[in-house]
Amino acid sequence: MYHSRHRKSNEYITVAIDTKSGSLLELINLRTGDNLIKNHRHGMADTFELITSEGKSFTVPKAEAVYSNPDLMAKITEIDNGLEVSYSCLSDGTNSTDISLTYSFRLLEDKINWEISFNNNSSYTITVCKFPYICGVWLGEYYDDDTLVYPFNAGIKVPNPTEYLSMPRNQIGWRWQDYKYTYNIDGMGLWPDKHGVYALSSKYSGPLSMAYCDLYGEDGGFYFASHSSGKGILAIRIEAMGAHSAGINFAVANDIHIKSGEKFAYNKAVTAFHKGDWHNGADIYRKARYSDNDRKAALASDWFLKNPGLFAHYDFKYQNGGIVHSFSDIPALADQAVEVGLNHLLFAGWHHEGFDYGFPMYTADRELGTLDELKSGIDYAHKLGVKVSFYINSRLANTKYTELDELIKDGAAVKSVDANGEYVISAEQYGNLDLKFAAMCAGAKNWQDRLSDAFDYVKEAGAYGIYFDQIAMAPPCVCLNESHGHSPEAWNEGCIKLLELAASKGLSTIIEGCSDLYGTLAAGQLVSTFSYIACAFPELYKYTFPEQILVDMVYPRRGMAMRPTFVGDRWKQLIDTSFICGSYLWAYDLVEDNSFENDPAAFSYLKSIVNARNLWLNKYGHGVFEDDKSLQLTGDISAKLFTSPTMVAFACNSSGMIELDSENKVKELILAVGKESFVKVSSATIYINSPSTGVIIFE
Question: 383: domain range?
Answer without folding.
Answer: 302-393+445-475+489-618
